Amino acid sequence: MASGPRPFREGEWVLLDGEGVDPILAPVRAGTQTIDRSTSIDLTGLIGALPGTRFAWLGVAYTAVRPSLADRLARLKRGAQIVTGKDAAQIVFRAGIGPGASVAEAGSGSGALTLALAHAVGPMGTVVSYDRRPDFLRAARANVAAAGWAERVRFVERDVVADGLDTEGLDAVILDLPEPWQVVAAARSALVPGGYLVTYSPTYNQLERSVREMRSAGFGPVDAEEVLVRALHVGEGGTRPDFEMLGHTGFLGFGRRRR
Ligand SMILES: C[S@@+](CC[C@H](N)C(=O)[O-])C[C@H]1O[C@@H](n2cnc3c(N)ncnc32)[C@H](O)[C@@H]1O
User: Fold this and answer.
1) pTM of structure
2) Which tens digits make up the pLDDT trace of 12-44?
3) Residues 82-104: pLDDT tens digits?
4) Which of 110, 151, 167, 241 is the most buried (most CB within 10 A)?
5) Partners of 17 in the beta sheet?
6) Pocket probe mutation, ligand 1, options 103, 132, 157, max atoms within 8 Å of Cβ
7) Can you spell out the DSSP letters for 44-74?
8) Ligand 1 atom 11: the closest Cα is on which residue?
């Protein structure tokens, strides 16, 4: 197995970390390309270069590194309320979503969860993302394209409460919409046995209805969680919890299709 730092390949995306300016996310490709709608940059020199390569552009010193999922999420343009990183991480972990998996979500919203799913399934996996609103689909599609993962995601305009899903054999389905309980039966049919259904809702009432529906639809152990993350302020001899904390996002319901 190869070891040591991997050089950048043509087509992969890099984070250009500039001193005193916002970082730039762009694909490594030959020739000049337009970024941020107006300025041009030539990243030909990064093909085959190692992470940590430094160069100057428009009077700023940049370092090229591989972007993390957090780097990509930080650039997301928000419309609808998004699934935050802490909840997305737990969804991916609990639903066992890994490289090569085939997953679906509704709705697309701003595409924040879509990005986390695209990251988890990798280049060999697929994400189908449903939304009934074309404006949200446009926003989510643009965010996924800006992160460099357009080829991993199929966006579908569809009301999943009225029309269900147009896919089957899925490893996981994630529902982030106002009435997830109304999609439980359709999600069950779309899942492989052993596949997971996850619901994400801001209120206890929605969670209760979803869990009740999952139990009566024959899902395996059904359980629910809330993820709380408390940042710490670290100072010599004065390390303590931060005063500010994101107190509430959403409640997660998990169920596994048994057969
Ligand atoms: C809170 S947003 C989803 C946010 C998204 N998970 C994210 O992380 O950016 C809810 C989305 O569900 C969509 N939606 C609501 N009801 C729907 C339905 N019946 N079928 C498809 N999409 C629906 C809305 O249009 C909206 O874009």
Assistant:
1) 0.93
2) 999 999 989 999 999 999 999 988 767 889 999
3) 999 999 999 999 999 999 999 99
4) 110
5) 63
6) 132
7) GGGTTPPTTEEEEETTEEEEEEPPPHHHHHH
8) 107
